[in-house]
C-alpha cells in the first residue's frame, strides 16, 4: 500500500514537471524572424519544482489531508444551522436589495468619473448575466453564443443612429426586440438538440454572427467598427458642451448650471442602473409565473414535463428569447456608453466571461449573479498588476466551482409557492 | 374512445411490438399484461407520442394521433404516469400540480407581469384545484414539502394526482402498484375505481400485480414478446391456456 | 483544363488540412464515445503539442543539431509526451471528479479548463504568434507554368502519410490489443465493463492520453504547415475538429477520418472559390446543419431515447 502510494505520488510529481517545465521554463523569444530559447527566471524554475514537490506530498498523504479538510468544514459555525424560514428570507433579501439600490443611486455623486464609468460597465454585465441566467440557470440550456444577441442590440443602435438618426430611447426597445427576434429565429431549429450539442451550435452561431459583422464592410464598417454613436438624452436635453442635434437643448444651459463632463457619465450610469433593476425585477417575476415553473419543470425532468402537455420547443424558446431580449438591452446601453463598437467587443471570450459570472454566482440565483458580476468586473481593476491573470483565474475558478461547488457561491434557494390553510 | 389497430414498433432489427390492438371504451378500465420485456411500456411510449410507431393506427376519439408530438396528445386528454415515478423532485408537492395545469392558467407574459385580474383569478383556481386533488389522494398534509422527499407510495399517488389536475379523458398508468405494499395496493385499487366512477375517466393500465388487474379490469389484453396473445374479460383470460403457459409458466 | 487543375489544387489543400482535423477529431470522438462528454479543452492540448514541438526544435537548433530526421523525431516525442501528460492531468483534475453529474457540469468544467490552458500558455510564452520553421521544404509541380501549375509540397505529403500511419496504428490497436478491447467494452457499457473487472478509470485515462498524443502529432504537422503558432491556435482548430467528429458520427473512429476530410475539402473549396473569410462560416454552418438533420453523423449509430 505504502509503496504503491509512493509510486503514484512520484508519478503525479513527474507529470507535474512534464506539463509545466517545458512551457513555463523555456521561453520562446522571437527576434525578427529568428526564434531562440531563453531560460525562465530562477524564480519560475524554483516554483515549478516546488509545485512538483507539493503535488508529491499531497498525493502521498492524500487520505490524511482529505480527512483533515472534512474536519475543517465541520468547524464552520453556520453549517449546522437550519435554513431561515422562507418568509423571513424573502423579506431580508428584498431589504438588502432595496438598500443596495438606494446606495447605488446616490453613490456616483461622490466618486470619480472613472469609478462611475466602471460601475456602468458592471451594470451592463449584470444585465447580461441576469439574462443569461434565465437561459442557463433557470431553463438549463447552455448558450455559448450569448454575446451574439448583445452584438445585435449594440449594432442595431449603431446602425439606426448612423443611417436613420435614431436616438437612444427609440433604439433601446428596437434593439432589444430585434435581439429577441434573433433569439427566436435562431433558437427555433436548434432548441430540440441535446444539452451539449446545443452548447456547440450556439457557439457556432455566435462565431458566424461575429464573422459576418467583420466582413460585411459596407454596412458594418467591418473591423473598423462604427463610431459616433450618440449618448442618451433626458427629455430632449443633451449632455454635451454643444448641441449636436437640432431641436435639442443642452442640459447645463436649461438647468442653468456650469457644464461638467461628469453629468453625462452619471446620467448614463443612472440609466444603466434603472435598466438593470428593471431587468432583475421582471425576471424575478417570471420565475414565479407559470412560465418560470415550466422552465424549471423542463430542466428537472423533460420527459415528465412533456407528458403533461408542456411543449419542449415553446418553453425553451421562451427562455431563449427572453434571455436574448435582455442581452439586446445591455448591447444598446453598451453602444451608447462606448460611442464606438467593433466586432472585437463580441468575441467568444465575452460569452465565456458572462457564463463564468453565472456559474460563479450560482446558476439561477439572482443575488449570487449580481455579486459575481461586481466581483468579476471590479477585482481585475483593483489589482491591475494581476489583470493579465484574470482569464487564467476565471478558467481555474470555473473548474474548481464545478468540482467542489457546482451550485455556485450563493446557490439559488427556490421561493416556493405555498398552499395556505383553507381559504 | 381509444382504438389501437395493429400497432408495430421496430428498433433497428428488433420488432419490439408486433401487430398489437387494444381498445378502450368510455368509462372502462382496460389492462395490458404480459411477462417482462413483452413490450408493454413500448406500447405506452407509442400511444403517448414519445415514440413514432413504425406501423398501425391509433385513434383517440376518432382522430388519428399516431406520430403526433407528445405534448399535443397529452393536451387532447391522454395523460400517463411512468414505471419509475417521474416527479419534479426539487419542487414542492403543490408546485408539481401547478406545473401540470399550465393549460388552465394565463400564460400570457404581459398579463403575468401586470398581475391582471384574470391572471390572479386563474392562479387562484389552479391552487384550489390542486388543493382538491391533494385532499382526494391524501397528500394535503405534505402539500408544501419537496416532492423528492415523499415516501414512495406518496410519490405514486402524487403522480396520479398530477395527471388528474390536467382533467384527462384517458389515464394511462404504467405499473402503478410497483413497489407498493399490499395495504397501499388496496388503496390504489379503490382510487383507480373511483377515478372511473366519480370522474368519468377511462383507464389503461399496465400491471404486474395480478390481483389488482383481475379485480378492477373490465377487459384485459395479454401480450408476449411483442405479439398479442389473448384478450377478453378477466375470467376469459384467466382460463386461456396460452396465457397460463406464457405468463404463469414464467412466474 | 486550367479550371480542373485549380479544382485539384483546392482538393489537395483540403485533404491536407482535413487529415489533420481528423487526427484532432479522434480525441473528441473517443472521449465522447466512452464518457459522453465534449472535451472542450482538447484544442488547447493540440496547441500545447505545437508549442512543445517548437520549443524542442528551437532547443535542438541552439545545440547545433539540425539533421532533419533527428529533429523531427525529437520534436514529435517531446510533443507527444507533454500533450499526453497534459491530457492525463486534465482528465484527473477537471473531469474525473465531476464524472456522472448533470451533463452541463463536466462541459462547463471543460470550458474552464480550455480558458485556463489558453491563458497558461499565453502568460508563459506571450500572446504574439511565433514563427515555426518549415523543416520540410519544397515540393513538385505538375503542369507547366503558363497554365495553372498544380503544386504538391513535401509537407503536404508528409501530413497525409503520417495521418494514414497514425490512423492505421490506432485502428489496429483498438481492434487487436487488450487495452483496445477494453476500450470498446467500456464505450458499450461503462457500468457493465467495470462489473466485469475492467479498470474503467485506467481505460478512460488511456483514452485521453491517446487522443492527446494524436493531437500533438497534428500540432507538429500543422505548425510546420502554417509556419506559426499562437495561444489561440487551438481554439478554432478544436472547434473544426469537433465539427469533423460530429460530421462523421461522434463515437466512430472511421467517421472522424471521413468527417475531417470532408470538412477540410469543404473549407478549401470555400476559400478557393468564394473567399477565405467565409471558410469558418461554412464549417460552422455545416456543423449546425448536420446536428439539426442528422445528429448521428454519417457513420454514427442512432440513439434511442430511454424513457
Q: Any chance you could write out the topology, listing elements then pairs?
A:
The complex is a heterotrimer of chains A (423), B (251) and C (307).
Chain A: H1 2-25, E1 26-31, E2 34-39, H2 42-60, H3 62-75, H4 86-106, H5 113-138, H6 147-164, H7 168-190, H8 195-215, H9 217-220, E3 237-238, E4 249-250, H10 251-254, H11 261-287, H12 290-300, H13 302-307, H14 312-338, H15 348-361, H16 366-382, H17 390-404
Parallel strand pairs in A: 3-4
Antiparallel strand pairs in A: 1-2
Helix pairs in contact in A: 1-2, 5-11, 5-14, 5-15, 5-16, 6-7, 6-8, 6-14, 7-14, 11-14, 12-14, 15-16, 15-17
Chain B: E1 2-11, E2 14-24, E3 29-33, H1 40-47, E4 55-60, E5 63-64, H2 70-76, E6 78-80, H3 93-100, H4 109-114, H5 117-136, H6 152-164, E7 170-174, H7 182-199, E8 202-206, H8 210-216, E9 219-224, E10 227-232, H9 234-239, H10 241-248
Parallel strand pairs in B: 3-8, 3-9, 6-7, 7-8
Antiparallel strand pairs in B: 1-2, 1-4, 4-5, 9-10
Helix pairs in contact in B: 3-6, 5-6
Chain C: H1 2-35, H2 42-63, H3 68-95, H4 104-125, E1 130-131, E2 139-142, E3 150-153, H5 154-176, H6 178-188, H7 190-195, H8 200-226, E4 228-229, H9 233-248, H10 253-273, H11 279-293
Helix pairs in contact in C: 1-5, 1-8, 1-9, 1-10, 2-3, 2-4, 2-8, 2-9, 3-8, 5-6, 5-8, 6-8, 9-10, 9-11, 10-11
Tell me what you see in this structure.
The complex is a heterotrimer of chains A (423), B (251) and C (307). With 423 residues, chain A is mostly helical. Chain A has helices at 2-25, 42-60, 62-75, 86-106, 113-138, 147-164, 168-190, 195-215, 217-220, 251-254, 261-287, 290-300, 302-307, 312-338, 348-361, 366-382, 390-404; strands spanning 26-31, 34-39, 237-238, 249-250. In chain A, the strands form 2 sheets. Chain A has a two-stranded antiparallel sheet. In chain A, strands 3-4 form a two-stranded parallel sheet. In chain A, α5 (113-138) packs across α15 (348-361). The longest helix of chain A has 27 residues, at 261-287. Chain A starts with a helix and ends in a 19-residue tail after the last helix. Chain B has 2 domains: 1-77 and 169-251, P-loop containing nucleotide triphosphate hydrolases (Rossmann fold); 88-167, no CATH class. Chain B is α/β, with parallel strands linked by helices and 251 residues long. The model of chain B has no long low-confidence stretch (mean pLDDT 88). Chain C has one domain: ABC transporter involved in vitamin B12 uptake, BtuC (Orthogonal Bundle), CATH 1.10.3470. In chain C, the strands form 2 sheets. Chain C has a two-stranded antiparallel ribbon with strand order 1-4. Chains in contact: A-B, A-C, B-C. Chains A and C meet through α1, β1, β2, α8 and α15 of A and α2, α3, α4, β1 and α9 of C. Chain C: One of its GO terms (cellular component) is plasma membrane.
Amino acid at each position: 500500500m505504502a509503496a504503491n502510494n509512493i509510486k503514484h505520488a512520484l508519478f503525479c510529481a513527474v507529470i507535474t514537471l512534464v506539463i509545466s517545465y517545458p512551457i513555463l521554463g523555456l521561453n520562446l523569444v522571437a527576434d525578427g524572424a529568428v526564434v531562440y530559447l531563453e531560460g525562465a527566471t530562477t524564480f519560475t524554475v524554483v516554483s515549478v519544482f516546488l509545485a512538483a514537490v507539493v503535488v508529491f506530498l499531497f498525493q502521498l498523504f492524500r487520505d490524511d489531508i482529505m480527512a483533515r479538510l472534512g474536519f475543517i468544514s465541520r468547524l464552520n459555525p453556520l453549517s449546522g444551522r437550519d435554513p431561515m424560514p422562507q418568509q423571513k428570507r424573502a423579506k431580508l433579501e428584498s431589504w438588502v436589495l432595496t438598500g443596495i439600490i438606494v446606495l447605488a443611486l446616490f453613490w456616483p455623486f461622490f466618486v470619480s468619473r472613472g469609478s462611475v464609468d466602471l460601475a456602468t460597465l458592471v451594470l451592463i454585465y449584470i444585465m447580461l448575466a441576469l439574462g443569461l441566467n434565465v437561459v442557463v440557470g433557470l431553463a438549463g440550456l447552455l448558450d455559448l453564443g450569448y454575446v451574439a444577441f448583445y452584438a445585435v442590440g449594440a449594432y442595431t443602435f449603431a446602425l439606426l443612429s448612423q443611417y436613420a438618426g435614431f436616438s437612444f430611447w427609440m433604439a433601446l426597445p428596437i434593439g432589444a426586440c430585434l435581439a429577441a427576434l434573433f433569439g427566436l429565429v435562431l433558437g427555433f431549429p436548434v432548441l430540440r438538440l441535446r444539452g451539449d450539442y446545443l452548447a456547440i451550435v450556439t457557439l457556432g452561431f455566435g462565431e458566424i454572427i461575429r464573422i459576418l459583422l467583420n466582413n460585411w464592410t459596407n454596412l458594418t464598417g467591418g473591423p473598423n467598427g462604427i463610431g459616433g454613436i450618440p449618448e442618451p438624452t433626458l427629455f430632449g436635453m443633451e449632455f454635451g458642451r454643444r448641441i449636436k442635434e437640432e431641436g435639442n437643448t443642452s442640459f447645463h444651459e436649461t438647468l442653468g448650471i456650469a457644464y461638467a463632463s461628469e453629468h453625462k457619465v452619471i446620467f448614463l450610469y443612472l440609466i444603466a442602473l434603472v435598466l438593470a433593476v428593471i431587468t432583475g425585477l421582471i425576471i424575478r417575476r417570471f420565475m414565479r409565473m407559470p412560465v418560470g415553473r415550466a422552465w424549471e419543470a423542463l430542466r428537472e425532468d423533460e420527459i415528465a414535463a412533456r407528458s403533461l402537455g408542456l411543449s419542449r420547443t415553446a418553453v425553451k424558446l421562451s427562455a431563449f428569447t427572453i434571455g436574448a431580449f435582455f442581452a439586446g438591452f445591455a448591447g444598446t446601453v453598451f453602444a451608447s456608453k462606448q460611442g464606438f463598437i467593433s466586432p472585437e467587443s463580441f468575441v467568444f471570450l465575452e460569452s465565456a466571461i458572462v457564463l463564468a459570472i453565472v456559474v460563479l454566482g450560482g446558476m439561477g440565483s439572482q443575488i449570487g449573479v449580481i455579486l459575481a458580476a461586481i466581483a468579476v468586473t471590479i477585482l481585475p481593476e483593483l489589482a491591475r498588476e494581476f489583470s493579465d491573470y484574470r482569464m487564467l483565474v476565471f478558467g481555474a475558478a470555473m473548474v474548481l466551482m464545478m468540482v467542489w461547488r457546482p451550485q455556485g457561491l450563493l446557490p439559488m434557494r427556490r421561493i416556493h409557492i405555498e398552499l395556505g390553510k383553507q381559504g | 374512445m381509444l382504438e389501437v389497430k395493429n400497432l408495430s414498433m421496430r428498433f433497428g432489427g428488433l420488432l419490439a411490438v408486433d401487430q398489437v390492438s387494444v381498445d378502450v371504451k368510455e368509462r372502462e378500465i382496460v389492462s395490458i399484461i404480459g411477462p417482462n420485456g413483452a413490450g408493454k411500456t413500448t406500447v405506452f411510449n407509442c400511444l403517448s407520442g414519445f415514440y413514432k410507431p413504425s406501423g398501425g393506427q391509433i385513434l383517440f376519439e376518432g382522430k388519428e394521433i399516431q406520430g403526433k408530438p407528445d405534448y399535443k396528445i397529452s393536451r387532447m386528454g391522454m395523460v400517463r404516469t411512468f414505471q419509475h415515478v417521474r416527479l419534479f423532485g426539487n419542487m414542492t408537492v403543490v408546485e408539481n400540480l401547478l406545473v401540470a395545469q399550465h393549460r388552465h392558467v394565463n400564460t400570457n407574459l404581459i398579463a403575468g407581469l401586470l398581475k391582471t385580474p384574470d391572471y390572479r383569478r386563474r392562479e387562484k383556481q389552479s391552487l384550489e384545484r390542486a388543493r382538491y386533488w391533494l385532499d382526494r389522494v391524501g397528500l394535503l398534509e405534505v402539500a408544501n414539502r419537496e416532492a423528492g422527499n415523499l415516501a414512495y407510495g406518496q410519490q405514486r399517488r402524487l403522480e396520479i394526482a398530477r395527471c388528474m389536475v390536467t382533467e384527462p379523458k384517458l389515464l394511462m398508468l404504467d405499473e402503478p402498484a410497483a413497489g407498493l405494499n399490499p395495504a397501499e395496493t388496496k388503496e390504489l385499487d379503490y382510487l383507480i375505481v373511483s377515478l372511473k366512477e366519480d370522474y368519468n375517466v377511462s383507464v389503461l393500465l399496465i400491471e404486474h400485480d395480478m390481483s389488482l388487474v383481475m379485480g378492477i379490469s373490465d377487459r384485459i389484453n395479454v401480450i408476449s414478446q411483442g405479439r398479442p396473445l389473448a384478450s377478453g374479460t378477466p375470467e376469459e383470460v384467466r382460463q386461456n391456456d396460452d396465457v397460463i403457459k406464457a405468463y404463469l409458466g414464467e412466474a | 483544363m486550367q479550371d480542373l487543375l485549380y479544382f485539384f489544387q483546392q482538393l489537395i489543400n483540403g485533404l491536407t488540412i482535413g487529415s489533420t482535423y481528423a487526427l484532432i477529431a479522434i480525441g473528441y470522438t473517443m472521449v465522447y464515445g466512452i464518457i459522453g462528454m465534449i472535451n472542450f479543452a482538447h484544442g488547447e492540448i493540440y496547441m500545447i503539442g505545437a508549442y512543445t514541438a517548437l520549443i524542442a526544435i528551437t532547443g535542438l537548433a541552439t545545440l547545433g543539431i539540425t539533421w532533419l530526421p533527428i529533429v523531427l523525431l525529437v520534436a514529435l516525442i517531446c510533443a507527444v509526451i507533454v500533450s499526453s501528460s497534459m491530457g492525463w492531468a486534465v482528465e484527473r483534475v477537471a473531469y474525473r471528479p465531476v464524472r456522472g453529474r448533470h451533463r452541463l457540469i463536466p462541459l462547463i468544467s471543460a470550458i474552464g479548463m480550455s480558458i485556463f490552458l489558453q491563458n497558461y500558455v499565453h502568460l508563459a510564452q506571450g500572446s504574439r504568434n511565433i514563427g515555426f520553421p518549415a523543416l520540410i521544404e519544397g515540393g513538385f509541380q505538375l503542369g507547366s507554368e503558363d497554365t495553372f501549375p498544380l503544386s504538391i509540397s513535401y509537407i503536404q505529403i508528409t501530413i497525409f502519410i503520417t495521418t494514414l500511419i497514425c490512423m492505421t496504428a490506432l485502428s489496429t490497436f483498438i481492434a487487436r490489443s487488450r487495452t483496445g478491447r477494453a476500450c470498446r467494452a467500456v464505450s458499450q457499457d461503462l457500468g457493465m465493463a467495470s462489473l466485469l473487472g475492467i479498470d474503467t478509470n485506467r481505460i478512460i485515462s488511456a483514452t485521453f492520453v491517446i487522443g492527446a498524443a494524436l493531437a500533438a502529432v497534428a500540432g507538429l504537422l500543422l505548425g510546420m504547415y502554417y509556419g506559426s503558432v499562437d495561444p489561440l491556435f487551438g481554439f478554432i482548430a478544436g472547434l473544426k475538429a469537433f465539427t469533423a467528429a460530429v460530421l462523421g458520427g461522434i463515437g466512430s473512429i472511421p467517421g472522424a477520418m471521413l468527417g475531417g476530410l470532408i470538412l477540410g475539402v469543404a473549407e478549401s473549396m470555400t476559400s478557393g472559390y468564394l473567399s477565405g473569410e467565409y471558410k469558418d462560416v461554412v464549417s460552422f454552418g455545416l456543423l449546425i446543419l448536420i446536428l439539426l438533420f442528422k445528429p448521428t453523423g454519417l457513420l454514427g449509430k442512432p440513439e434511442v431515447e430511454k424513457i
